[in-house]
Amino acid sequence: MLQRISYETLQRAAIYGAALSVSGCFLLYYQIQRNLASGPYFTEAVAAVRANKEACALLGEPVRVLALRLGDKGNRVTTEQAQVFIPVRGSKSKGQIRSYASVRNGKWELDKVVLELKNRPEKSINILDTHGLN
After folding, report:
1. One domain, residues 64 and 99
2. What's the structural domain count of the chain?
3. Distance in angstroms (rounded) separating the CA atoms of residues 87 and 37
4. Measured between alpha carbons, how far is 72 from 31 in angstroms, rounded to an integer?
5. 25 and 90 share a domain?
6. CB-based burial of residue 114 (10 Å sphere; 0-12 exposed, 13-18 middle, 19+ buried)?
7. Rounded to whole angstroms, how far apart are CA atoms 17 and 113?
8. What is the rounded CA–CA span in Å between residue 60 and residue 90?
9. Is 134 within a domain?
């Protein structure tokens, strides 16, 4: 014979199931952010901005990287190309690094890195442009 399960037991199971589902979603979101942030198209772009004196002067030291917004439609990574918008903040301003990279000879190489400032949208700094537009 089947035994009835109490309402309280079902309620507890639903709450625990929901908590596990939400925790899994947060873990997946964090893991995707971490994987994107470990790519050379991300790390080399951030290093290039930190090495640029004009960018550091406008942002203010120290230049910190903020969490990637995975919902930003500008963030795209395929097996051949990457376009990542990296939010950054300094002591004077904040903005975003636009990093464009592609795979050449089996290795990721930056094509273009641009810093855009939030408080001065007309002022964008070309940090790197391998197509001669810098």
Report:
1. yes
2. 2
3. 11
4. 17
5. no
6. buried
7. 43
8. 5
9. no
- Domain membership of residue 28 as a residue range: 1-38
On whether both 119 and 61 belong to a single domain, the answer is: yes
2 exposure class (CB count in 10 Å sphere: 0-12, 13-18, 19+):
exposed
In three state form, how does the secondary structure of 95-113 look? Answer: EEEEEEEEEECCEEEEEEE
pLDDT digits (tens, 9 = 90+) for 55-80: 999 999 999 999 888 888 889 999 99
pLDDT tens-digit series, residues 27-37:
999 998 898 89
Mean pLDDT of 33-61: 93
pLDDT category at 95 given cuts 50, 70, 90 is: very high
In a 13 Å sphere around the CA of 123, the CA atoms on its Cβ side amount to 11
**Token digits of residue 3:** 């035994």
Residues in the chain: 134
Residues 60 and 89 in one domain: yes
Taking each helix axis from N to C end, the angle separating 7-37 and 40-51, rounded to the nearest 10 degrees, works out to 60
User: Which DSSP symbol is given to 76?
Assistant: E
